[in-house]
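User: Small ask, check this?
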Amino acid sequence: MRVGKDLIWHQVSSRTWYNRYLLEFLICKELINPKTILSFGCSTGEECATLQQHFPDAKITGCDINPDVLRIAKQRYPEFEFLYSDNQSLNGNKFEAIFAMNVFHRNTKSCEGLPKYERAFFDNQIIYLQSLMCKMGYLILYASDFTDPPGCRLLRTYGKLAIYEISI
């Protein structure tokens, strides 16, 4: 568990790499064509760079709750906007697609001793993400501990990938 100013987050690892979700993004590209994308839990920015490869016309924004990885992301990928994941920083932004890859997931071995995500926490986070959506948008979850997020209609699943449609 790591502690930030007035915030506790349970990020075991911020390790990521370019093209980590290659197959999943290829599937998404066949179904959706968003012009604004939020990488929710972007870590050091590689996910944003990979998303740009698949959605070259999209404006991509990354956010994370870990200020250390955001500093790295801003240095590595200055072409993207990276925001701290809180209400103030994200307020006023609207996205056609939000990708939350491995964000709502607890691997039992590496997360031993950390509190499990409760369904109420997940539901509240989904409601918050919906507030950042355009009138019609997509929520893409990978390896989520929960299915059937509130206010979402399942469009497609593939393995651990779930693509939801949201109408506000």
The chain has one domain: 21-167. Residues 1-13 have pLDDT under 50 and may be disordered. The radius of gyration is 15 Å.
